[in-house]
């Protein structure tokens, strides 16, 4: 990364933050919750070039460093952005095309079914993974049956109605790790969700800290009670752990070894979600249990995201089987390799 | 969004080169059957191991050459440390000296202290104890009552320390003593001293821990003389100094790797074809460990930049000791094996060692509760 690129990334991050902070209002979140796609907000996101963050400059993207590009997805998640920004970023990068219309990822079951596809009814294109490989499919070539996740975000069951689709090569760095195209794309999605979970956890802790300082009982703010302080300390630790391990996974993009990094991130994120959500709800008490309070925009997303692209249990098992098959002595070098930071400037992709 | 970020530290080529050499050294130790990995870690005192390690150039490496060091980076030291721990080597003899006492002397000691002591630590020949806790001063460390009175050419220490790990083996202790009034902050009037254990007026009495081991001790001081040039920092600076020392003490990978070999043993006991429960539980522990290792490299990076990552270190220590304590709990549910210190095999032994040590993980170096309160202050709640 050169200084100019870093400056550019900082500007993009700042502009995005301003957009999310201003535009992702309570009213709009409420409207999108079980409601229609926020086309106007997508246009604003698109005008800022955010969907192209991960695509290389030479391919028509803005080519941010990995940490910076996934940092945008994290930021968006912290605001509970009700759009498939991360999915679109990823599809653009994996297909090497500067397409800015909403896009998404779909994992086929053995019988060909494409269940629970994020924004499957709103995406212009779907990157489909099945046992044969990956294909980029136009919206016109799928039929949609709409469902919602716990956060009211669209999750649609898709059915392909035509055979058309542009075949997309699974990149070498992914096929080096797994010969299953579905598993490869699941790992990509798992990285995205763990980065989003990290942002949402940070947000949840921030809200709880704020509530604890503002709410008074027994003549003092909740934050003065040691029990509350320690709960928030634990929540801070958990969130920090997910930030760290999802950073490691984002860095792994474009290199062999990515799937393990993504698996560890999704596993840790799922574990932390349960712990943090319990704490922040306990601290917000009855107020946080209402539809009125904003906390649920974050925690309902957390409860959904931790299940998507493989739950923590699925990835735990995946890691556990690999680790056991390799034997105890192989773990340490593997652990070192999959958590050591890669130098920026050495970014692959 | 997130108050404490753990940005990844890139390991320089020198650090990766050091990984190769320390691995080779440890492999040779194991090949020569000089230690049993499943029993050993930083609470195993083995001066022979420490001397060989020192002779091979793996101790005190961040210190300047003139004091026996190699001016290596914190990241290189981090790599050596984590490899020593992961290998389950008996590194307890020099551990405290390398981790905190040496750095403390380098920062705050007199020229004589640096010249006489640091090279010996680096050779693996000189060991230290931590003289902080007292019967009436555990978590509330500022309540220490051991006193040092000014005398001709130095100080005279009287009082008692307790829980002093290795006091019966070590050459020196760094003692926190009261040299003046507590003041309103309660943190005034404290000073740290480098005390030679050969000095007349010191009595060490062992305390057996619940596992039956003799590791910690009571130490009594009766008019024990310490020369002026064995004072650390200035008189009255002790609180700031001890806080800095604790930051060294808490910041390393020893706070989540002390029973790493149990995880290795668990994986081997389960074998290459785990059932689903075993795979899920082991996978989860590995993912937790991955996040800890990542955070720990980040702290090494902060230390390397000259920062004092007090709160980040508290975060990793609390998460890390929680992990270490969970490990035997998970292991015993996955493998049908009664922990035993007898001859039932290495896994039963590792499990027994860990079950019996685990309660101490979240006590020593600052209790879980104290760490959480520090973190709470860090996020603005206190
Ligand atoms: C194996 C081992 C080795 C050790 N080695 C050394 C050594 O080499 N040198 C040395 O100086 N010390 C050593 N220690 C001592 C260690 O630092 C102390 O045990 C620790 O600081 C706690 O002090 P305490 O045991 O007196 O417990 P206490 O301070 O009495 O605490 C008892 C309980 O109360 C809790 N508590 C105390 N204060 C608060 C508070 N304000 N808020 C909430 N909870 C609170 C604690 O967290 C703990 O759970 C060692 C301890 C062990 C177990």
From TrEMBL, chain A:
Gene3D superfamilies cross-referenced by the UniProt entry: Acyl-CoA dehydrogenase/oxidase, N-terminal domain, Butyryl-CoA Dehydrogenase, subunit A, domain 3
Pfam families assigned to the protein according to its UniProt record, in alphabetical order: Acyl-CoA_dh_1
PANTHER family according to UniProt: ACYL-COA DEHYDROGENASE, ACYL-COA DEHYDROGENASE FADE28
Keywords: FAD, Flavoprotein, Oxidoreductase
Protein name in UniProt: Acyl-CoA dehydrogenase
Keyword Flavoprotein tagged: yes
Ranges for domain Acyl-CoA dehydrogenase/oxidase C-terminal: 193-321
InterPro entries linked: AcylCo_DH-like_C (IPR036250), AcylCo_DH/oxidase_C (IPR009075), AcylCoA_DH/ox_N_sf (IPR037069)
Taxonomic classification: Bacteria, Pseudomonadati, Pseudomonadota, Alphaproteobacteria, Rhodobacterales
GO molecular function, one term: acyl-CoA dehydrogenase activity
Organism of this sequence: Seohaeicola zhoushanensis
Entry keyword Chloroplast: no
TrEMBL record, chain B:
Protein name in the entry: Acyl-CoA dehydrogenase
Keyword entries, A-Z: FAD, Flavoprotein, Oxidoreductase
Single annotated GO MF: acyl-CoA dehydrogenase activity
SUPFAM superfamilies tied to this protein: Acyl-CoA dehydrogenase NM domain-like
Highest taxon above the source species: Bacteria
Domain Acyl-CoA oxidase/dehydrogenase middle: 130-224
Cofactor: FAD
Ranges for domain Acyl-CoA dehydrogenase/oxidase N-terminal: 15-125
PROSITE patterns: ACYL_COA_DH_1 (PS00072)
Pfam family membership, one: Acyl-CoA_dh_M
Gene Ontology, cellular component aspect: plasma membrane
């Amino acid at each position: 990364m050169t200084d100019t690129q870093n400056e550019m990334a900082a500007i993009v991050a700042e502009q995005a933050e301003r957009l999310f902070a201003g535009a992702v209002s309570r009213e709009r979140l409420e409207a999108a919750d079980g409601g229609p796609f926020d086309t106007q907000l997508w246009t604003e996101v698109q005008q800022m070039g955010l969907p192209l963050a991960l695509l290389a400059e030479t391919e028509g993207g803005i080519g941010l460093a990995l940490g910076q590009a996934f940092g945008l997805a994290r930021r968006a998640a912290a605001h509970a952005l009700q759009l498939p920004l991360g999915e679109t970023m990823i599809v653009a990068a994996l297909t090497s095309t500067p397409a800015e219309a909403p896009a998404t990822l779909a994992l086929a079951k053995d019988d060909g079914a494409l269940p629970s596809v994020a924004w499957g009814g709103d995406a212009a294109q779907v990157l489909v993974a099945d046992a044969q490989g990956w294909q980029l499919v136009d919206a016109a070539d799928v039929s949609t049956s709409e469902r919602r996740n716990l956060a009211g975000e669209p999750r649609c069951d898709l059915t392909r109605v035509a055979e058309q689709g542009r075949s997309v090569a699974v990149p070498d760095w992914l096929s080096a790790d797994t010969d299953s195209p579905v598993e490869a794309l699941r790992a990509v999605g798992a990285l995205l969700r763990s980065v989003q979970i990290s942002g949402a956890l940070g947000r949840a802790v921030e809200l709880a800290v704020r509530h604890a300082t503002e709410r008074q009982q027994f003549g003092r703010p909740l934050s003065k009670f040691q029990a509350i302080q320690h709960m928030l300390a634990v929540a801070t630790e958990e969130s920090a752990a997910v930030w760290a391990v999802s950073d490691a996974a984002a860095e792994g993009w474009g290199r062999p070894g990515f799937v393990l990094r993504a698996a560890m991130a999704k596993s840790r994120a799922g574990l932390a979600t349960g712990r943090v959500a319990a704490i922040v709800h306990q601290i917000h008490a009855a107020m946080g249990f209402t539809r009125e309070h904003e906390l649920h925009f974050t925690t309902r997303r957390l409860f959904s995201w931790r299940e998507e692209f493989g739950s923590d249990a699925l990835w735990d098992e995946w890691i556990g089987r690999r680790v056991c098959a390799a034997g105890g002595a192989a773990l340490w070098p593997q652990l070192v390799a999959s958590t050591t930071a890669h130098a920026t400037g050495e970014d692959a992709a | 969004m997130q108050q404490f970020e753990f940005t990844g530290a890139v390991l320089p080529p020198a650090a990766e080169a050091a990984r190769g050499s320390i691995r080779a050294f440890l492999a040779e130790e194991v090949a020569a059957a000089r230690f049993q990995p499943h029993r050993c870690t930083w609470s195993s005192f083995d001066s022979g191991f420490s001397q060989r390690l020192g002779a091979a150039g793996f101790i005190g490496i961040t210190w300047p050459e003139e004091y026996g060091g190699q001016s290596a980076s914190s990241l290189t030291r981090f790599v050596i440390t984590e490899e020593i721990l992961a290998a389950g080597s008996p590194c307890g003899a020099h551990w405290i000296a390398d981790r905190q006492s040496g750095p403390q002397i380098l920062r705050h000691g007199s020229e004589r202290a640096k010249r006489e002591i640091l090279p010996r630590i680096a050779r693996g020949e000189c060991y230290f104890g931590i003289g902080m806790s007292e019967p009436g001063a555990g978590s509330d460390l500022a309540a220490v009552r051991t006193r040092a009175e000014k005398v001709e050419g130095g100080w005279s220490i009287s009082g008692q320390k307790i829980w002093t790990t290795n006091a019966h083996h070590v050459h020196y202790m760094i003692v926190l003593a009261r040299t003046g009034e507590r003041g309103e902050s309660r943190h005034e009037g404290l000073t740290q001293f480098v005390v030679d254990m050969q000095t007349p007026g010191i009595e060490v009495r062992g305390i057996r821990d619940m596992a039956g081991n003799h590791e910690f001790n009571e130490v009594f001081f009766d008019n024990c003389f310490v020369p002026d040039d064995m004072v650390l920092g200035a008189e009255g600076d002790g609180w700031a100094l001890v806080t800095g020392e604790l930051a060294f003490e808490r910041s390393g990978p020893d706070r989540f790797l002390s029973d790493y070999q149990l995880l290795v043993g668990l994986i081997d006991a389960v074998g290459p074809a785990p059932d689903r429960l075993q795979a899920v539980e082991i996978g989860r522990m590995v993912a937790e460990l991955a996040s800890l290792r990542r955070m720990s490299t980040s702290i090494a990076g902060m230390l390397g930049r000259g920062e004092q990552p007090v709160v980040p270190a508290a975060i990793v220590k609390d998460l890390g000791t929680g992990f270490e304590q969970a490990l035997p709990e998970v292991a015993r549910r996955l493998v049908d094996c009664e922990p035993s210190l007898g001859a039932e095999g290495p896994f039963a032994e590792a499990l027994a060692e860990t079950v019996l040590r685990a309660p101490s993980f979240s006590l020593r170096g600052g209790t879980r509760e104290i760490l959480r309160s520090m973190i709470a202050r860090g996020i603005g709640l206190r």
